Structure formats: structure tokens, C-alpha cells
Amino acid sequence: MAIVEGWLPASRENWETLMWWWQFYPIFGSMQWLSSWYGMGKTSVDSKLNLPGRIAWFTMEVPGFITLLYIMTTLPTQHGIDDLPWQNKVLASLFVMHYIYRALFFPFLQPSMSPIHVSIWASAIFFQVANGTAIGCWLAAYGPTTQAQWQAQGFSVAQFALGLVVFYVGLTGNYFSDEELREIRRSEMRRQEKLRDQGKVIDKHYEVPQNGLFKYMLFPHYFMEWVEWTGYWIAGGLAFTPARCFLLNEFFAMLPRAVSGGKWYKEKFGEEKIKGKWVIIPGVY
């Protein structure tokens, strides 16, 4: 049963329309170059339109994998597909695994989260639903749905295995970079608790992360997410156009934030504190 007739799950014609427009998302993401403000994290400000951080993050990240799972369980039946190839199932599982961490675990592992502006929340939901539809429809019916079709687009087990390795390297690096940031916040919360016990005034505290990949760059969690989705595209092959769009969309959405964040670190701590660190792309910037 369709939730939105023709769109959820999407008909082939509507999916192709979505994919045509989806290739232009980098233009929207690049608009962040025009402003240093981003309504969450370090640049979050007090606003009546802010939402509690954990709840906003959870509700804006969940729609992606829920959309994909719904499409994977409904669209094949509509197209008379009894069983999908193992490649489709593995790729769908990787997507769901990533977002189970990002949506269900990440916000509740955080010692604290800044509020998120409703505009960021709404745009993230749109992105997740569109991305879940783009990838889910390809995996469920509009990409290869038989082993013969996979072979026809040049499938190789070695390439798929390489993609999995790159994906898991990115996933692991992303997780441990997140964990380093969480440990800084845990230490800060312990420090603040001691100050409260002493009756002292508590100021907001920031520091430059120094462990793990943070020894070499300021935003390894962003970079490793790009690595992760590069692996995903490699596994699916060049014809996996929704994965390519996802990677490019993330790159153009996250790069301006990293550049702005690099300037913030420089202004906050001075050139000497971040000397020798790349901002986000090792050996380049």
C-alpha cells in the first residue's frame, strides 16, 4: 500500500524525475558559503525556533533508513520481484546500519547536544526522505534485480569487497572520531560539576581535539564519512548513481561547514594551536 501514491514508493517515472533534480542538490548545499551561520553545534544561537538537540537529531535522521526499508519491502512486490540479489540486500543493510548508529545511538551517546534550529531540522528531513527514496528505489526495483543484470553492468566480487573494506574503514573512523569528541564533553562535564560544587561560575568551554585522527585534521569525522560513502559507491559500481549523488551531496553540504569551522578554531584558539593540522582533506586543505 502506497503512503503517497506514485511517490512513496515512487513510480519509475517519478524516481527518474527525483534523480534528475537530485543532481542539483550541491547548488543548494553550496549556498552555505554565503553565510557562516549554521543552526546547530558551535554556531547554534538562542532562538524561539530552536528544537532540543537530541529530539531534533533523532527525528531528522530516522526518516532516511525508515524510507529505504519501507521501499525495500513494498516496491519489489509491485514489480513482481520475488527475491532480490544478495548485492541489493547487502547494500541496503549497510545504509540501514549507518543510520541506526547516526539516528538511534549517536544522539543518546552524546553527553550534551546544542539545540537545532527548525530550518536545519526541516531541511535534514527533506534530505533524508529524498536520499532514502533515491537509493531505496534503485535497490528495490530500478537498478539491477537479477544476477544477470548485475553482471551486465560489470559486477565483480573483488570490487564489491574493496567497497566494503573502504566503507567499514570510513564507518570505524567516523565512530572513533565521534567518540573522541564525546570524551572531551564528558571531561568538561566532570570539570563543570566540580566547579558547581565549589560555587564557582561556569563559562562555556571549548578545546581543540588532539587524539586519534584529530592529531592530523580538524574534521576527521566529516572526512571519514566521505570515505564511508565512497566505499558504498565502489561496492555498487559506477551505475549506482544514487550512491554517487549521495556522496557528492554530502561533500558539497559538509565542506562549507568544515571551512567555516576551521576559521572558528583559528579565531578561537589562534594559529599556533591548530598549526600542522589539515582542516578536512589531508594533504590538500
TrEMBL record:
GO cellular component, one term: membrane
Subcellular locations according to the entry: Membrane
Molecular functions (GO terms): 3-oxo-5-alpha-steroid 4-dehydrogenase activity
Claim: S-adenosyl-L-methionine is one of the keywords in the record: no
Family, similarity comment: Belongs to the steroid 5-alpha reductase family.
Domain of life: Eukaryota
Annotated 3-oxo-5-alpha-steroid 4-dehydrogenase C-terminal domain residues: 116-285
PROSITE patterns for this protein: S5A_REDUCTASE
The keyword Cell membrane is annotated on this UniProt entry: no
Keywords: Membrane, Transmembrane, Transmembrane helix
Organism: Xylaria flabelliformis
Main subcellular localisation: membrane
GO biological process: steroid metabolic process
Record's protein name: 3-oxo-5-alpha-steroid 4-dehydrogenase C-terminal domain-containing protein
